[in-house]
Design goal:
heterodimer; A: 312 residues; mainly alpha; two-stranded antiparallel ribbon; 7 helices; B: 460 residues; four-stranded antiparallel β-sheet; three-stranded antiparallel β-sheet; 13 strands; rod-shaped
Chain lengths: 312, 460
């Protein structure tokens, strides 16, 4: 095809402009570190990266939830362990009292300790966490599980004493679910009725009865023997609750690892499509630089060629 | 004798014209749209003699404008297509950038919003978790409104550009009309430079809109834009105008927007009625869906005061007869963090069952005819999917633009092959005709000497 002079210039100039555009693009990649500047560069990767980004943030949130659950459960487990220790102490105490060799005075000393341990047990059942929520209250976390408010038998006569406590469980029997993984929910608490029982069947009433037995002059061997069995049952109930808590704690740890593994995979996937391979990008930049220089040099050489230079 | 003179004179004349034509070509080498001119030399009629026919010299039969009608038409077509695709790609890119954000945009606001729900779920009784969530809801609605503003701004810009381009169409129409008159009135041979100028004006017009040209046979042409809308006719010229919505009218009367296609105006109209319309509608629908769904779940649960939840969001669409029909007002109407309905009735202040339902909304499908492009996409993910839809359109336009650029370059090369001036070629021709001129000048000198000899022969 015949080429006119303006066309020659245009072709050479287009070459330079084209190289400039490529060079700028390569420079952008190197300086930003991003391979995907516009979504239209790779629409599939763009959407996928946006989705992956959301997944990453979600996983972080689940980890935060997991930490929270772990904190609560570890507190709960500690309190249950402390309660078990109290019951085991009371068991020792009961065995001792049943040994037959104690005087009424000595048995009384044990009774005094028993009463103190009852208060300790109640305190533990009504434990509050750092936010003021009752640990064993389930969803009614602002409701004290076991009411210990003294109610006078005769309001007009304080000397008449107080009514016995009912040890009714006043809070919720439901526990909430917390999401710690994409398809993993765990319960972050255990309700008081499952650890301490309620009403006449509660561990508190049990300890009160023990106190009564110890107050009986001469002791009550049959009663005390029965008491040991009942204490064992109460300890068993608490241990079961503690095991369940332990299982949930394990689930949280396992999920944490799973989340960690997933996070790593996502970060790698993001880096591979969104992040630029610097070695390749820099060598591309240098290549384009050479290309531009070549285009510019050939342009100026072309400009020098004209038949008019040779006519006189 | 006189034949000798006349022949030599004719040669001088012809070569002089040839040199003048070459000079004109050289002078116009960089003139946009100039078609080079060549000289057609033809031998003059010979005189018959008994010995044979005696030639009488040379004359210029024509100064020919080197012009390829077909190449010019192809150039116009690819120019229109190129401009349309490029415009669609550039304007589409603006829309894509609004949604494909970088951690400070709407996608990150949505993410924080849903994370905020999880914070409440883990801590339903905590006022600070609830307050934090309300703040994130505020940020979300602000981002929605920001994006809406940006889309509206792009829409305004498109209308402005359409208006400017339509004005340019009219200016070019006026110029073509003027050139038509001038060319039509010229006596004798066609005025080449006027025809070049007219072609150049039509080419510029083709950047703005698709054009078709028909020759009226008398030197004038009729020019039609888009799908056959007449712009310039013999003795008559039509004017286009654009209103504040970017709709186009002819002579201030009939609306012709659907038939304006191709070129930059075609590109602006395509984006305005296509991609922009799409993203504005989807944004509005998503805001509406979010408001509805969350308010419904709010109503199902109770706040810390055990009262049913009040609406969380307020969504008010603009009047559909409004030009900016996809405008809306989206805001957070709940101010008291205690009223976020995290729990269900009777569940206790630590109940998170209702806020978990809200968190689930992230994965609920957006349904219905109101959101055709987002149908089946999730509330949390639909904007991300929309990015993909727009990105595909932009990529198609870019690829179309690249393809058209190649076609345009080829058409241009074709036109230049016929009409473009090559300085080396002109230099060579210059030498050729200069040599011929010198030879014919020498001829005159010899003719004079011959005559002189004859005179001297008769002198005493």
């Amino acid at each position: 095809m015949r080429i006119s002079t303006p066309q020659l210039n245009r072709l050479a100039l287009n070459s330079i402009l084209d190289q400039q555009a490529r060079l700028t693009r390569a420079q952008q990649e190197v300086s930003s570190g991003k391979a995907l500047v516009n979504a239209s560069d790779d629409s599939v990767a763009a959407v996928r990266n946006l989705n992956l980004q959301r997944n990453l943030e979600q996983l972080k949130q689940f980890d935060r939830n997991g930490l929270l659950v772990e904190g609560r459960l570890s507190l709960t487990e500690g309190v249950v362990t402390g309660s078990i220790n109290i019951l085991q102490r009371l068991r020792e105490l009961t065995v001792q009292a049943n040994s037959g060799a104690l005087s009424d005075t000595e048995r009384n000393a044990l009774r005094i300790e028993t009463d103190q341990q009852l208060q300790a047990l109640l305190l533990r059942a009504n434990t509050r966490d750092s936010d003021g929520a009752y640990v064993f209250a389930g969803k009614d976390e602002n409701v004290r599980p076991y009411d210990t408010t003294p109610v006078p038998i005769d309001p007009a006569d304080p000397a008449a004493g107080n009514q016995p406590l009912s040890y009714a469980y006043a809070a919720s029997r439901e526990v909430r679910d917390i999401q710690i993984g994409t398809s993993q929910f765990v319960q972050d608490a255990v309700t008081g009725d499952r650890v301490y029982g309620e009403g006449a069947g509660s561990v508190f009433r049990l300890v009160e009865r023990l106190s009564g037995l110890l107050a009986t002059p001469g002791g009550d061997p049959q009663g005390l023997t029965d008491m040991i069995g009942e204490l064992d049952q109460a300890i068993e109930r608490m241990s079961v609750a503690r095991t369940e808590i332990g299982i949930v704690r394990n689930t949280v740890v396992t999920q944490e690892d799973l989340n960690g593994g997933l996070t790593l995979k996502i970060e790698e996937a993001l880096a591979s499509t969104d992040g630029v391979d610097f070695t390749a990008a820099i060598s591309r930049f240098n290549q384009q630089l050479l290309g531009l220089q070549a285009a510019q040099q050939t342009f100026s050489q072309l400009q020098g060629l004209s038949l008019f230079n040779f006519i006189r | 004798m006189s034949t000798l003179f006349n022949t030599a004179l004719s040669a001088l004349n012809a070569n002089q014209r040839a040199l003048a034509t070459i000079s004109n070509n050289i002078a116009n080498v960089n003139t946009e749209g100039y078609s080079r001119q060549t000289v057609d030399l033809v031998a003059r009629r010979s005189n018959p003699t008994p010995a044979g026919s005696l030639g009488t010299g040379v004359e210029v039969a024509a100064i020919r404008r080197q012009y390829d009608e077909f190449a010019t038409r192809q150039l116009r077509e690819s120019n229109s297509a190129l401009n349309e695709q490029r415009t669609r790609a550039d304007q589409g890119q603006q829309l894509e950038t609004v949604l494909f954000d970088d951690g400070n945009g709407i996608n990150s606001a949505l993410s924080s919003f849903f994370d905020g729900l999880q914070e409440i779920a883990a801590n339903p009784a905590s006022l600070s978790a609830r307050q934090s969530f309300l703040s994130q809801a505020q940020v979300l609605t602000t981002r929605f409104n920001d994006i809406q503003q940006r889309f509206n701004g792009i829409q305004d810009e498109l209308v402005d550009r359409i208006d400017t381009a339509v004005n340019d169409v009219n200016k070019l129409g006026a110029e073509i009309f003027r050139l038509n008159e001038a060319i039509g009135q010229s006596q004798g041979s066609q005025p080449s430079e006027l025809m070049d100028q007219r072609d150049e004006a039509i080419l510029k017009l083709s950047s703005l809109v698709k054009v078709s040209v028909s020759d009226n046979g008398n030197g004038t042409v009729s020019v039609f834009v888009g799908n056959g809308q007449s712009l310039v006719l013999p003795g008559q010229r039509n004017t286009l105008s654009a209103n504040e919505q970017g709709r186009i009218f002819i002579n201030g009367g009939v609306e012709i927007t659907p038939s304006i296609q191709g070129g930059q105006i075609g590109g602006y109209l395509a984006v305005q009625g296509g991609t922009l319309e799409l993203v504005q509608a989807q944004l509005k629908n998503l805001a509406s869906v979010i408001a509805n769904e969350f308010n419904q779940v709010q109503a199902q649960g109770v706040g810390l005061d055990n009262q049913p939840g009040q609406p969380l969001f307020s969504f008010i669409p603009a009047d559909p007869s409004n030009f900016k029909q996809h405008s809306f007002t989206f805001s957070v109407s709940l101010t008291d963090p205690a009223q976020v309905a995290a729990g269900s009735a009777g569940g206790g202040i630590g109940d998170n069952s209702n806020v978990l339902r809200m968190a689930d909304l992230e994965f609920k499908g957006v349904a219905g005819p109101a959101t055709p492009n987002l149908n089946g996409k999730t509330i949390g993910g639909s904007l991300r999917d929309l990015v993909g839809i727009i990105a595909n359109e932009v990529r198609d336009s870019r690829q179309g633009s690249d393809a058209q650029q190649a076609l345009y370059n080829f058409a241009l090369a074709r036109r230049e092959a016929t009409s473009g001036v090559n300085l080396d070629e002109e230099a060579a021709n210059l030498l050729k005709f200069q040599q011929a001129y010198q030879a014919s000048a020498q001829m005159i000198s010899i003719a004079r000497d011959t005559f002189q000899t004859l005179i001297n022969a008769f002198a005493r």
